[in-house]
Amino acid sequence: MHDVYICDTTLRDGRQMPGVYFTLYECVEIAKRLDEIGIDQIEVFCPGYVLKDYFLIRELNKIGLDKKLLVWHRGLKVDLEKSLNTKLKFGAVALSIATEKHHREQKLQMTKEQIIENMCEAVSFAKEHDLYVSVNAEKSVGTEPEYLIDFADAVTEAGADRIRYCDTLGELIPHETYNIISKLAKRIKVDIEFHGHDDMGLGVGNTLEAYRAGAKWLDTSVCRLGERGGFTSLEQVLYNLYKHFNIKKYDVSKLAELATFVQNVSGIDPPPNTPITGLNIYRHESGIHAHGVLRDVNLYEKVRAAEVGIKEGSMRDKIVIGETTGRESIVFILKEFGINVEKTDPVISKILNKIQEQYLFGRKTSVAHEELVELYQLFTAKNRVKPVTTLAEF
Ligand SMILES: [Zn+2]
Question: Under CATH, what is the fold of the domain 5-266?
Fold first, then answer.
């Protein structure tokens, strides 16, 4: 497979998510952590329009991250002028304009030719200032293919270094993405960048298919932060590139740490069954799974916690007791507390029955391991008052 480069847009598209507001310090910290993982480009807003980004770029200039910045602008010379007037250092810019018919007519009220003309003017201006240029065709999906190619050819002629194909509404399906990008890759003379939103949950699939089809640049966002249904996950794209395409240039062992930081500062708690970095990647409740894991964790874990930097602790931390727990887990946990019982011992059935009964009556939490010990003691204590253990005894 060809080379791949990641442009992470947590600090641009991620910040367009309603309710997510990073402080300046948090933005700097996210950029540093992206750099440590080996991310190739970090996208931010035009410093001429977003006040925080002026200070953010200034801070990133101080630590040498200007080389990794991609500064987003509308495809207008006036936007670029504003950024250049700040005298901040940045090596690359994104210039964006919508190319799809309804966006052209209803939003921009511009003809196809005017759009090309405006973008070419902005690209030429950027090149006069020695900037690397990613031209963004907003709403590439739905744009007439021939017009998209004419647009790409014209901006390439003006000096564009790559074309960002935008699935702005996250509406593609992976096989369709493959077909579109492979056709474009044959016709377009510069690199293709794929920018996939995740409205229908196919962002990662679309992004990987775009890569297979020839896209060199892939856009991502940490913790799927993005508008509406979110943006393509950095964690999922990097891990899949590592596992399925043998891409080793990114340090996936730092993914959990980065995701945890972004969760904390965004205030968005992902569910524990989040792919790649969710805590449940190493926790098991169901009897069949726990039985297997107690013998060999590889039987039920493909993504290993240590690979992405999650400290999974001991086997005891892996075993969760709940409604679907089986005998092996009960025996194992009791043994951890120094209680040796055979799994055929009747007390195990009593404990399991008691647990299941609690869930029948609406229990909502897992059973703490200490509770198992209490149940064991309840059922084995001598001279005890006989507890009600089954529904039939009520
Ligand atoms: Zn976007």
Answer: TIM Barrel (3.20.20)
Domain coordinates in residue numbering, the chain: 5-266, 279-393
Return the pLDDT at 312. Answer: 86
pTM: 0.94
| Ligand 1 midpoint to CA 196 (Å) | 7
For residue range 122-138, what is the model confidence (pLDDT) as tens digits?
999 999 999 999 999 99
pLDDT tens track for 314-353: 999 999 999 999 999 999 999 999 999 999 999 999 999 9
- Nearest-angstrom CA–CA distance, 80 and 61: 18
326/342 Cα distance (integer angstroms): 13
Q: Residue 133 pairs with which residues in a beta bridge?
A: 93
From ligand 1's centre to the CA of 8, what distance in Å?
Answer: 11
Q: How many residues appear in the chain?
A: 394
Report the separation in Å between the CA atom of 13 and the middle of ligand 1, taken as the mean of its atom positions. Answer: 6
Ligand 1 centroid – CA 76 distance (Å): 18
**CA–CA dist 221, 232 (Å, integer):** 6
CA of 183 to the centre of ligand 1 (A): 22
Q: How far is the CA of 12 from the centre of ligand 1 (A)?
A: 8
* pLDDT one-digit tens code per residue, 137-195: 999 999 999 999 999 999 999 999 999 999 999 999 999 999 999 999 999 999 999 99
Dist. CA 226 → ligand 1 center (Å): 8
Cα 136 to middle of ligand 1, angstroms: 10
Q: How far is the CA of 9 from the centre of ligand 1 (A)?
A: 8
- Residue 393, pLDDT score: 65
Whose tokens are 């892939």? That residue is 218
Q: Which helix (H) or strand (E) is 263 found in, with range? A: helix 255-266
